[in-house]
Amino acid sequence: MKSLIKNFIIITVVLFLVAGAVSMSEINKVDPDVIGIGTLVNEINNEEVGSIEVKGDILVVNLHDDSANVQQVKKEYGQSFSEMIDNYNIDPEKLQKIDIQVKDETGWKYWLKVLAPYMLPFLLIGGLLFFMTRQVQGVNNKAMGFGQSAAKQSKPGEEKDKKTFKDVAGAKEAKEELEEIVDFLKDPKKFTNMGAKIPKGVLLMGSPGTGKTLLAKAVAGEAGVPFFHISGSEFVEMFVGVGASRVRDLFSKAQKAAPAIIFIDEIDAVGRKRGAGLGGSHDEREQTLNQILVEMDGFNPNIGVIVIAATNRPDVLDSALLRPGRFDRRVVIDKPDINDREEILTVHAKGKPIAKDVSIRKLAERTPGFTGADLANLLNEAAILAVRRGKKKIDEIDVLESVEKVLLGPEKRSRIMTEKEKEMTAYHEAGHAIVGHFLEHCDPVRKVSIIGRGMAGGYTLSMPETDKRYQTYANFVDDLAMSMGGYVTEKMIYGDNMLSTGPSSDLKTATKIATAMVTRYGMSTKLGPRVFGENEEMIFLAQEIHDKKNYSEKIAEMIDEEVSDILKDAQRRAKEVIEVNIEKMKELVKVLLEKETVEQEEFNTIMGSGAKKEDMVKEK
């Protein structure tokens, strides 16, 4: 549309200039005196005429005495100049002295001169009508195309950023499941000869950032078939029936291009459980979901069309969507383990100048719980840090700082703190670190810092040496004691009157863990192995509104007492560790006030290389 407007403006300007030039040329000409034929005959006989131009029925006469004096004579229509001369018996000798020229007035120049004054108005009016028509047609097209699918189609060989399974690090089991889908699309007879039916739908489930969309792109790249991709939120509009219409259009296009793959990202936007939410059974989302159910396994089967969907909320999906015949294969994509993280880091390290002191394996050990997206972001942040510091390569310092930045946020060195606040922060973090170091089931302390990051004034970074799939009772109680370390230290050093708001986040986390131990994990000795309360959530809001209370008030009091006892026990254990190691804590605080940050090796040296966890506690 923009190119049409541009061309129209250019053509209009050119024609305007041409019309202007023609008009100016006509303006500059002297208006001739109109005379009769008799007068012309007398002038010829008196030898006053210098030249005559014959232009159709018009004779342009130039006299000898004044070249600027131009006369114009109109002869009879259809009569030639020679006939006119013969009729008036003009002496031929006198005519020979006159320069007579006959000009053709029927060519393009004549018509240009005639039409030029009218071209510009007609062009402007025509252009205005043209654009008004196009505008009306555009509105009609949008109205007619409102129910069409917004899915983007990628055809084999046209992908700008083609992905294959080689580009997907880790997720071995998930890739194996999807390779069968690719194999079926490439060679379906191998399966049909055995009487096997390929799954109609594959649901990719996993936490955000684990690579669900990347795997779908890899399937498209490997299969070599048309690939339609759309987000679940693109189906639904404010108008009733649009979502269902778009679903029909999407499956119709895929059926025409079969074999083909449809990828619906974030399908929980339209695939949530029915019968709840605003609008009841007539909600637009439900109509869209119903149409998806029909298209995937209705009376008109979509042969050769495979649907792949991704979600991080499989618990809210409608049961009809998950039954065999629709999404009958579910692929769970977990967070990567240490080997997968090493592979992912290796992939994302390509194209980045990594220094020799950076060990990808050690970095994988340092990042438990990180997803593929987190790891990609980590190396990107490390590259940005290296550029900011004027380095030519990404070294270990950049990488380790990026780990903390991804976990906790950027450093806030510009934050102004008084010496008293600095000392209190140092004691608080030292309390966490001391308790975490000497309790057996706490993760190793990697770093202690009094430099603020994110919302925290300081932090103690502890990470496990290996990946953990489960948490034990011993892990919970030791972690609770470590969480209480800062609170206990502030009370011991400064007294109850000077207790700050710093431990508020620790207390909130500890209370949440203790409550879960009692109500979710059956770790209460008094209440026994039972789950208390059920989460109630709005299906379409995906929010937990409150816990459904399925126990008596007496049990509620017992839960509160049990949670309180667990927290008090954690406080007691933290206090015991700190009292035994008070001198080590003061030494750590001194170093923190000097350097602001203590790394793992220096921290272990301060604690004593020969000291083992809980040895110092047992001595008491």
Automatic annotation (TrEMBL):
Q: Which domain of life is it from?
A: Bacteria
Q: Which residues of the sequence carry a binding annotation for Zn(2+)?
A: 428, 432, 506
Compositional bias (Basic and acidic residues): 155-168
Enzyme kind, highest EC tier? hydrolase
What does the note under cofactor report? Binds 1 zinc ion per subunit.
Its cofactor is:
Zn(2+)
The terms describing its cellular component in GO are: plasma membrane
Transmembrane regions listed in the UniProt entry:
110-132
Per its record, what are the GO molecular function terms? ATP binding; ATP hydrolysis activity; ATP-dependent peptidase activity; metalloendopeptidase activity; zinc ion binding
**Active site, renumbered:** 429
Q: Which N-terminal residues, if any, form the signal peptide?
A: none
Q: Where is the AAA+ ATPase domain?
A: 198-337
Q: How does it assemble?
A: Homohexamer.
Similarity-based family: Belongs to the AAA ATPase family.
Q: What is this protein called?
A: ATP-dependent zinc metalloprotease FtsH
